[in-house]
Design a protein that fits this description.
It is built from three helices and no strands. The chain is mainly α. It has one domain: Helix Hairpins (Orthogonal Bundle), CATH 1.10.287. Helix 1 packs antiparallel against helix 2 and helix 2 runs antiparallel to helix 3. It starts with 5 loop residues before the first helix and ends in a 13-residue tail after the last helix.
Length: 104
């Protein structure tokens, strides 16, 4: 009655992935680019969980990879936000085209 199959998860994951790639390639704002990278990582997490649920029911490898990716994404977001704040303080903009040099 309410069966959600692997194909449904893959469709959502594919949509998130391509929205993330489109956002990363078309936007010039660093915050928007960071959010696009997070969308791409979340689409990978959906794939890991879906394949773990439907193909390897007895194992938890997909879930462990997902937790690892979430941890890495949190650290990546913290470092990226720190770089963006530093860039804004030095250049008064977060536009990618304006930020052509990084100083110590």
């Amino acid at each position: 009655m309410n069966d959600i199959g692997l194909l449904h998860f893959l469709f959502v994951s594919c949509a998130l992935f391509f929205i993330g790639v489109y956002g990363f390639l078309t936007r010039r704002n660093l915050i928007t680019m960071l959010m696009s990278v997070e969308l791409i990582l979340n689409s990978v997490n959906i794939n890991f969980v879906a394949f773990n649920k439907y193909l390897y029911v007895d194992k938890l490898d997909g879930l462990f990879f997902t937790i690892f990716i979430i941890t890495i994404a949190a650290a990546e977001a913290a470092v990226a936000i720190a770089i963006i704040i530093n860039l804004y303080r030095n250049h008064k903009t977060i536009d990618v085209e304006e930020a052509d040099s990084m100083k110590f």
